[in-house]
Design brief:
Length: about 350
């Protein structure tokens, strides 16, 4: 069976699968949840199983920074008796302050961002979450035998059928990272991030890929960060990239800079900058054929034939790819992909 691209950026594969004897990739779903998110988690797992995983039966690894309560465990077991899933508590060392952080300074940052009404600006837990996804999710010993992950958030939905194995597509086509939505970051959450990145690169320039995607995140002189990043609530990626010395050293340098706590550096900009600098740009893939919703944004395939073939339920007119706050234009330009004829329509259309 061949897994091929049918165009410059679209996928095409329609396998006939017997889930019982199917040779899977070493891959899993990763979900971070809370006990109180049980109902949206159930809805999301059912959605992903129906639109994709019923054909492939990849396992679910469900993480919580607190122990799962008995109701969560019991209800999930009744809802998914035939689905492989694992419930795991995140080690405290993955979800706490590193010892070099000045807690008073971090507290003042949260207070100031709260005064400025920055989303999650006041949240301590949100920063622990960002640090976890930026530098620790790939370190779980339970994932040591996996090469690929698909990050899923409770409450999100696939809006189209996916008629091919995403993980095989990634592996067979030499991809290391895939996304569906790109977006601009809130400027005052990452005010010093790019300066820290430049400091790191100045002493580690050998880590840059010669054919990277730097133009997606900055100008050719690398004078500034344009705020573009891959929205990480949906990401499909190589665990081995994140485990690599190149990525780990980059993360640990940024971690020591303290911006996760002294500002509100998110995992998405950290991931995106690393991916754009250290990977060959051909290793990054935009899944334009996948319909997806995470409040408040929708990604919907713009190609009518793809939309129809994949039985999409989304409205193509509200696709986020080329709207103003999106970074779709920057991505298409950096990858030298021809934009669809109707793309300018979306520059005026807003939700």
């Amino acid at each position: 069976m061949l897994w091929v691209q049918s165009s410059n950026n679209s996928n095409s594969a329609s396998p006939t699968i017997n889930p019982l004897d199917y040779k899977r990739e070493k891959a899993c779903f990763m979900v971070l949840t809370k006990n109180e998110q049980l109902n949206p988690l159930i809805a999301t797992i059912k959605n992903y199983e129906e639109h994709f995983n019923k054909n492939y039966r990849y396992p679910w690894y469900i993480f919580n920074d607190q122990p799962f309560d008995s109701q969560f465990v019991d209800v999930l077991s009744k809802e998914f008796p035939a689905t492989e899933y694992h419930l795991l508590t995140i080690p405290k060392s993955y979800w706490s302050y590193p010892d070099w952080i000045d807690l008073n300074k971090a507290d003042e940052t949260r207070r100031e961002m709260d005064r400025q009404n920055v989303i999650y600006g006041e949240s301590e837990s949100y920063r622990h979450m960002c640090r976890y996804w930026a530098g620790y999710f790939f370190r779980h010993t339970e994932l040591k035998n996996f090469d690929w992950f698909w990050r899923v958030e409770p409450g999100t939905n696939l809006l189209c059928d996916i008629n091919y194995d995403i993980f095989k597509y990634m592996n067979y086509n030499g991809k290391k990272y895939g996304f569906v939505i790109s977006i601009h970051e809130i400027p005052n959450t990452i005010e010093t991030l790019w300066e820290s990145v430049k400091k790191y690169i100045s002493i580690n320039s050998q880590t840059l890929s010669p054919n990277n995607l730097q133009n997606f995140i900055t100008d050719k002189k690398a004078d500034y960060y344009n705020l573009c990043h891959f929205w990480s609530n949906f990401e499909i990626g190589s665990l081995n990239f994140f485990r690599s010395e190149t990525y780990v050293n980059f993360f640990e340098f940024l971690d020591k800079e303290g911006g996760i706590y002294y500002e509100r550096w998110g995992d998405a900009p950290i991931h995106s900058i690393a991916l754009s600098l250290f990977l060959n740009k051909t290793e990054i893939h935009f899944f334009d054929d996948i319909g997806y919703y995470h409040e408040p944004f929708t990604h919907c395939p713009l190609d009518k034939a793809v939309w129809k073939k994949n039985k999409c339920s989304c409205n193509r007119r509200v696709d986020f790819t080329f709207q103003d706050f999106s970074c779709g234009v920057e991505y298409y330009d950096a990858q030298e992909i021809i934009k669809p004829a109707s793309w300018k329509f979306f520059r005026q259309y807003q939700l």
